[in-house]
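User: Second chain of the day. Same drill as before.
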Amino acid sequence: MAAKKETNEVKQLKEKLFIKRKNTAKLFTDAEQKRADKFCDGYKLFLDAAKTEREAVLWAVKECERAGFMLFKAGVKYKAGDKIYTVNRGKSVITAVIGREGLDKGVNLLASHIDSPRLDLKQRPLYEADELAYFKTHYYGGIKKYQWTAVPLALHGVVIKSDMSEVKINIGEDDSDPVFAITDLLPHLAEEQYKRPSNKLIKGEELNILIGSRPVREDEGGDLVKLAVMKILNRKYGITEADFLSAELEAVPAHKARDIGFDRSFIGAYGQDDRVCAYTTLKALTDLKKIPRKTAVAVLTDKEEVGSDGNTGLKSVYLKHFLLDLAEMQGVKLRTLLSNSKCLSADVNVAFDPTFPDVCEKLNTAYMNYGVCVTKYTGSRGKSSTSDASAEFTGEIRKLLDDNKIPWQTGELGKVDLGGGGTVAMFLANLNIDTIDVGVPVFSMHSPLEITAKNDVYSAYKAFGVFINM
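Assistant: Same format as last time:
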């Protein structure tokens, strides 16, 4: 009897003093699970429609306008409840809902990115070799190059012609479209290839996309397959080879987002880093039912995968200028708005993979189906290139999620000395904004088929929703 009493006391102490984590499959009611699955049906449609940053912006604008948002105009006096958006060069978008409190109290900011690792066509991509036509590529972001061979690829982007007219390209997504591919060696002949280190198993200059083989019907002359390809492109799009010089064309996986698993609990798709957070942040704003206390802002930005440089990345001043315009509208100093603002840098983190357990430290990593992941700091090794959120702001987010019964967990991007990575958090924190990373755990990050858990995606949506209402 005494032993049983002692066991109960220990159990109560553990309940009181230890971290309590539960799988969302056990936390969600049947009704909540149905809502999560339905939410992810919409998310999969977004992934199929927005495989590039430009397409994500177009989708976001349509979603905003459907929800009653209006195009932002500097100098206009917006009132509480007004919904606005602005687009930066077709590659990033900012949306906002004006809150009840003045901007001297700051804003609640959600920041995610809509660019993903991919293969960009070079400026002079088209060439012929041994009567086969190819596109030369330059990979964008951190990829395992060998993963991009022998998979169907689609071509997305824009071409600006010599007369400055724009041609939109989207080939490989419709079932009637052709697709493209990068070839690889058969294992029978790969003995020398196998001797290469894994990061050079396929070299960057070997990521050449096969695009054709039928020459124009001439008996002599060179580059007849290349010419035949240009004839097709000229006939359909009115472009010449010189027009590639002013084009942005991206090769991306041609497959659609699909459910994974017998229980359909996962989503497999290209580009979930970080469009999973872009979708959930934008939906948090467009689904707002009441006017928030503070002005709610969401930025879907470009260039994160290559360091956030350039005028569409968050090292640029475009977000700062938007916030300045808002501040001036109410006669508030920008530094006052910034110093009183709070931000969730909405980006993904690694999920613990039992197949590769050695890269993660199990106490401090995120797990599939345990909710949204709060990452206090990112960076690499000695917290290099990171924003380390304060204990106070971390505690504030912790309390917010607990009070609203949002499933959440903490995580790091692998063991301390193994690598790590960064997000846009530090660029926002450098503006004197309290910032912390919050996002969705992912399997196979930066691969052509990234995997997320539906319940984690839905938990992120709920987390972002309560944040902009705090």
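The CA atoms of residues 269 and 327 lie 39 Å apart.

User: Great, on to the next one.
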